[in-house]
Amino acid sequence: MTVAHPISRAWISAAITGAQNYDEFADDAEITAIIAANPASSLAIEMPHLAPDSRGRSFTEALPDAAARLAAQQEHGDYTPAEQVAVLYRITAPGEPPAVGLWAMIDTDQISASADEPGLVIRNEDVFLAKVRERVALAETVGALLSPVLLLQTGRGDDLHAALLAAADAAGEPAAEDTDQSGRTHQIWPLPAGPEQDELLALAGGGELVVADGNHRSLAAQSGGLPRFLAVVTTPASVAIQPYNRLISELPVPPGELVERLTAAGATVTDLPRPARIPGKGTIELYVDGRTYAVDLPADPNLPDVENLDHARVERVLLGRVLGLDPGDKRVSYVGGDYPAEWLRDEVDAARSELAVLIAPVTVDDFVTVNLQRQKLPRKSTWFTPKARGGLVLAQLG
Question: Domain 245-360 falls in which CATH fold?
Answer without folding.
Answer: 3.30.1760
